[in-house]
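SEQUENCE AND FOLD
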Amino acid sequence: MLTYAIGDVQGCYDELRSLLDRIGFDPGNARLWLTGDLVNRGPRSLEVLRFVKELGEAALTVLGNHDLHLLAVAEGQAPRKDRSGALEPVLAAKDRDELLDWLRRRPLMHHDPTLGYALVHAGLPPEWDVAEACRCAAEVEASLRGDGFREFLGRMYGDAPKRWSEHLAGWDRLRFITNCLTRLRYCGADGTLALEEKGPPSRRTAGLMPWFQVPGRASAGVSIVFGHWSTLRLDPEAMAQYRVYPLDTGCCWGGQLTALDLDTGRFQSIPCRSWDLEA
């Protein structure tokens, strides 16, 4: 079965449908991987959620930080950041409860050994191999799917702790895992998270490096598809060297929406319009 991966949609429904037409996506004989952040910023988050949900088993999306923030806002666990009102149609929809329940049951990590690819929204700390990343993701997924999910949504915010230890427990452990999988871009050489660093590698603070360039990274043996980092641009040689495939090409900022055919390695993109962004 064909498998395509697509970067952060962020409410750009029309562009998503156009890209699927471009690649000839047929849910009857192909599968779609999405890097998360289905919602926010773009104008049609509600339509994106409904469409991806209706694709059923033909689509697999991991959760991104904007998806988690939508859930937190909906449950009264966080203030709204979308001054543009991008989330309002979702929060006011008659089927909001069904959509949000579906969303919080999405995974944070996926690995297909047959394809040889893993899928995550942001990144992995250097200490985790892909198997451990999947185990850690399952801990957060259990919290999101359990009766205490509202408390988790309120406790997930914050940048600490910044270093991994198997001895981390409770909310500190869950917050660290969540931050890696949904927010990470840079680390120090010792694995310390630098969550405040957001720009392109050409403007990074001295001593920091993209998470996938940390020497000795335990996940280096598996190809990883991710989104989240719209200012990251890697040439084919760098992607092959690090076995990482960044797919957030800034659709909601007027860039492109990009798909990767996991079977052939071919990229296809469509241009996108820019939105009136205040969030």
In short: The chain has a mean pLDDT of 95. The chain has one domain: 2-271. DSSP finds nine helices and eleven strands in the chain. The longest helix spans residues 130-145.
